[in-house]
Every structure is written in structure tokens, then in C-alpha cells.
Design a protein that fits this description.
Blueprint: H1 2-24, E1 37-38, E2 46-51, H2 72-81, H3 95-98, E3 113-120, E4 125-130, E5 136-148, E6 151-154, E7 157-163, H4 164-177, E8 219-223, E9 225-230, E10 237-239, E11 245-247, E12 250-255, E13 272-282, H5 291-315, H6 333-346
Parallel strand pairs: 1-3
Antiparallel strand pairs: 2-4, 3-13, 4-12, 5-6, 5-9, 5-13, 7-8, 7-12, 10-11
């Protein structure tokens, strides 16, 4: 009985500590990015994309020898504001990066290690699009540098992991902040582009400036290097209330502009270099999603049941039906004193 009580107490303590520790630990990689890697097979396993301040957002390239009709007022505004933003020394992105062909190519599931070095221009963002496999645990390692006289030195920038729908919101905010057609007419930020920090993450989708990273945690800001990993219960699919299901790819975003978050790094006014290593490792044990609530239910039940059982055993530990052999009553002091007095009186 004593052994079982100690075992129940151990289960209670383990349940309390495991549940509390699981809620405060940040997302980390299980291992470093070490393993066999290959160069990306572009548009087959990985797609390279970019957001740049001088792109004309869906129109032909600003600096191409192409002609398109536009209003005279808009033409003067575009040439005066956006052409000055382009500098070949500060923007190494190629045209196919910031003006991709739609629909985007369907990527193969990522099952092999990838390594690439990407250059991101000033006030720009560089993206790698993946089709992550739910049968693999994927680890990302990113190191950030700045080009100074053809040499690289560590630099601070922001790294985000997003799904397709999250990236679409992020891309729209970037367009708005870089000459969106209605941004100059409506000051959604109230004169402060960092107003998003005052809005809880669950409400940011209702704000025109709102966007968020995958699972609200995979955002690493003002950092020089970061390592993190993710595991999925199944394929990432977005279910709309007014439509069908939409497949979600993943975007690794290297952010080099002053976005709408307070804690993000400022532009470095130089070319940002990101060394990216992605290592997928096949998972040996895949538990179904319902095991998560089951584990939580068992932990909560243990917190409630174990103290009740321990208290019941404690209250019953001194009780029993058997009576001891040769039971003798304990004499009272008053009885002994009375018997001694009678003896003294009987002596002549």
C-alpha cells in the first residue's frame, strides 16, 4: 500500500511538470543542420521569389523596354517615386524572382537536404517556397550577412516561416507600404506603421496591415542566425468557410525591410546575404492527431484523481476490523489513586 501511494505521487508530480514545461519551451530544432545537402532543383523542389520596392505589381517590369498604357498622372508618379528606388548595386534580384509566372509551379515534397545562398536587396524580401512533407521533420538553419566591399560580415535581419495564405497577406502589406494604389489615401496605421504590435495575433487578420507567421511562433526578428524545426500532423490544408480546401505551401521569408512589426530589424542599406540549409528527416513514429487531446485529458484526470485516492488511503490507513490479542485496558490515574487510598485506610 505504501509503494502504490508513492507511485501515484510520482505520477502526479510528473504530470504537473510535463504539462508546465511543454507550454513554455520555444520552438527549437532537434539537431543541427548537418547531413547531405544538394543544390536546389529550382521550380521542382524549391522556388526562389522576391519582393522589391521598384516592381510595378503585376504590370511589366519597370525597367524593361516594354510599353503599356497608363494615365498621364500615374505615369509621372511612377517614374518619380519608384524609379529612384532602383539601384543595381543594392538590388541584385533577377526579374523572374519578383515577377514570377502564374500559376506557380507545383513543387515535389521536400525529402532531401537543400542548401543555397541568396542575396536580398535593400528594402526587399527574399523567399524560398517549399512543399513540406508531413512524414518528415524539417529543420531550417539560416545565417545572415551583409556585403561590405565584396566581403561578408554578420548582419541583423528577420526570418519568418509562413503558409501560402499567410504569405499572401504579408505580400499585400508590402505592396501597400511601397506604393499601393490606396495606401496614400487611407492612413490605416494612424501615422504609425508599427501599430500592428498593439493588436493580438488572433485579430490581426481583420486589420489591413495584419499578417502573422506559421503557428504564431515562427518569427525570428533582429537576428544574425536562427535554427528551428517543424513537424506536421498531416498535410497543411486551408479550409475556407465559403469555398473548398486550398493546399498550403511554405515560404521561408528573409525580411530586409521595415515591416509593420515593432521588433523587426531596420533596412541595412546594403545587400543582405542569407545562407540557408534545410534538412528533412523522416519520422519513425507518426502518432494520430487524436493522441494530443487524449494525453491532455489523462494529465488533467491524474491531477484530479490522484489527490483524492491518496487522501482516501491516508484516512483509511489506521482503520481495521481485527482486534489485537490479549487486549488490556489502560488504567486511569484516578483509579490507581483511589485504590491506594483504600489500602492505607485498611491498615490498623
Amino acid at each position: 500500500m505504501q509503494l502504490s501511494s508513492k507511485a501515484m505521487l510520482f505520477v502526479l508530480i510528473a504530470a504537473i511538470f510535463s504539462s508546465s514545461m511543454g507550454t513554455i519551451q520555444p520552438a527549437q530544432a532537434a539537431s543541427a543542420c548537418e547531413g547531405e545537402v544538394v543544390a536546389p532543383d529550382w521550380n521542382t523542389t524549391v522556388q526562389r521569389m522576391a519582393l522589391v520596392p521598384f516592381s510595378n505589381w503585376g504590370m511589366p517590369y519597370m525597367y524593361e523596354d516594354m510599353y503599356y498604357e497608363e494615365d498621364e498622372d500615374d505615369s509621372g508618379k511612377s517614374q518619380s517615386e519608384y524609379s529612384s528606388a532602383w539601384d543595381p548595386n543594392l538590388h541584385p534580384e533577377e526579374q523572374w524572382m519578383y515577377n514570377p509566372t502564374y500559376p506557380l509551379p507545383t513543387l515535389d515534397p521536400l525529402t532531401t537536404g537543400q542548401y543555397t545562398s541568396m542575396q536580398i536587396g535593400n528594402d526587399s524580401s527574399g523567399m524560398l517556397r517549399f512543399n513540406l512533407s508531413s512524414a518528415h521533420r524539417t529543420t531550417f538553419c539560416v545565417s545572415l550577412y551583409e556585403l561590405v566591399d565584396n566581403n561578408t560580415v554578420p548582419a541583423d535581419a528577420d526570418v519568418y516561416l509562413m503558409t501560402t495564405s499567410q504569405y499572401n497577406s504579408y505580400e499585400e502589406v508590402y505592396r501597400m507600404m511601397h506604393g499601393g494604389w490606396w495606401w496614400d489615401d487611407f492612413d490605416i496605421g494612424g501615422g504609425d506603421s508599427d501599430a500592428l504590435s498593439d493588436i493580438p495575433p488572433e485579430w490581426r487578420s481583420f486589420n489591413p496591415l495584419g499578417w502573422q507567421a506559421y503557428r504564431d511562433v515562427h518569427q525570428y526578428e533582429s537576428t544574425q542566425q536562427v535554427t528551428f524545426s517543424i513537424s506536421m500532423d498531416g498535410p497543411e490544408v486551408y479550409n475556407s468557410l465559403f469555398g473548398g480546401s486550398e493546399w498550403q505551401d511554405f515560404y521561408l521569408v528573409i525580411d530586409g525591410w521595415d515591416n509593420t512589426n515593432d521588433g523587426d530589424a531596420a533596412p541595412i542599406s546594403s545587400v543582405l546575404v542569407a545562407d540557408v540549409t534545410v534538412i528533412p528527416v523522416e519520422r519513425t513514429a507518426l502518432l494520430p492527431p487524436w493522441t494530443v487531446p487524449l494525453t491532455l485529458f489523462v494529465a488533467l484526470a491524474a491531477v484530479v484523481v490522484v489527490p483524492v485516492v491518496l487522501n482516501k488511503r491516508y484516512m483509511e490507513s489506521g482503520l481495521g476490523d481485527s482486534s489485537p490479542v490479549n487486549e488490556k485496558s489502560v488504567p486511569y490515574l484516578e483509579q490507581e489513586a483511589a485504590s491506594e487510598t483504600e489500602v492505607d485506610l485498611s491498615i490498623p
